[in-house]
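[step 3/7] inverse_fold.run input=structure_tokens len=270
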């Protein structure tokens, strides 16, 4: 065979090869492999303090690598189940329920708690826990023992902000017509209860009203439990997870209030 005939044969063979493997120009792409047969995941949500099951909790199964998730709710026995879960080596779970909180995972915990689901695998025994939130309640009464409605009550705790520990509000409540308040959904911590009556912001007639009366203006003062005007004299309350502390009562006596009047000026244009 001459050189010209050999080259022609190689060109023909190269043209036929793509056709033999289905890669010729214009041919449809080779279909992707079919997804594996799905599996399932089931488990229980428990109270971390009492170990009792939690109903109506929302559980989410995440597959962050493939970008999808499944959601289910627990039944009366705290059980949840995910059916038709696509196989994957890295699933994570989250859970939430009113009246409970979940601990934020530390670095690396997601990897440790990953849930692999193989093809047609039935994963069981997944245990998730929630920590119950607590309650602090009490009454606000005047010096005659009558209820004071409409008083704002704050549960304060020290938080790290702006480079230092500061006493900041966590949750608030307002007293009802019986003078009762209930601050709920509190995480376990040490709290300072702060009483902040609305009347502490002005005298009779409201702000901006010049009221002439035959007696001094009076208002209920701002207090820290059990009755200190300053945080330094307050008594902290240690609240454990899921605890309900009652009896944080205030007896408040009106004090004389003063009104200041003046004018603010710009020192540059005075």
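[step 3/7] decode complete -> sequence:
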């Amino acid at each position: 065979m001459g050189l010209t005939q050999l080259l022609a044969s190689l060109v023909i063979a190269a043209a036929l090869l793509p056709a033999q493997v289905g890669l010729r120009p214009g041919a449809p792409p080779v279909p992707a492999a079919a997804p594996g047969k799905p599996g399932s995941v089931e488990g229980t949500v428990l109270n971390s303090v009492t170990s009792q099951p939690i109903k109506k909790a929302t559980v989410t199964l995440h597959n962050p690598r493939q970008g999808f998730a499944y959601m289910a709710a627990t039944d009366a026995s705290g059980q949840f189940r995910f059916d038709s879960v696509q196989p994957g080596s890295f699933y994570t779970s989250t859970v939430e329920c009113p009246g409970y909180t979940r601990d934020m995972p530390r670095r690396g915990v997601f990897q440790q708690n990953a849930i692999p689901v193989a093809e047609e695998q039935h994963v069981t025994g997944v245990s998730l826990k929630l920590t119950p939130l607590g309650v602090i309640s009490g009454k606000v009464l005047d010096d005659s023992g009558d209820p004071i409605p409409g008083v704002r009550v704050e549960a304060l705790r020290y938080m790290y902000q702006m480079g230092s520990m500061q006493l900041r509000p966590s949750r608030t409540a307002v007293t009802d017509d019986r003078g009762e308040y209930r601050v709920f959904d509190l995480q376990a911590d040490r709290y300072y209860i702060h009483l902040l009556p609305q009347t502490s912001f002005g005298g009779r007639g409201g702000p901006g009203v010049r009221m002439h009366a035959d007696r001094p203006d009076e208002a209920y003062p701002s207090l820290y439990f059990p009755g200190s005007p300053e945080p330094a004299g307050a008594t902290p309350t240690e609240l454990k997870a899921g605890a309900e502390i009652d009896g944080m009562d205030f007896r408040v006596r009106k004090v004389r209030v003063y009104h200041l009047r003046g004018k603010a000026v710009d020192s540059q244009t005075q």
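[step 4/7] annotate
The first strand starts at residue 39 and ends at 47.
Residues 8 and 14 are 10 Å apart (CA to CA).
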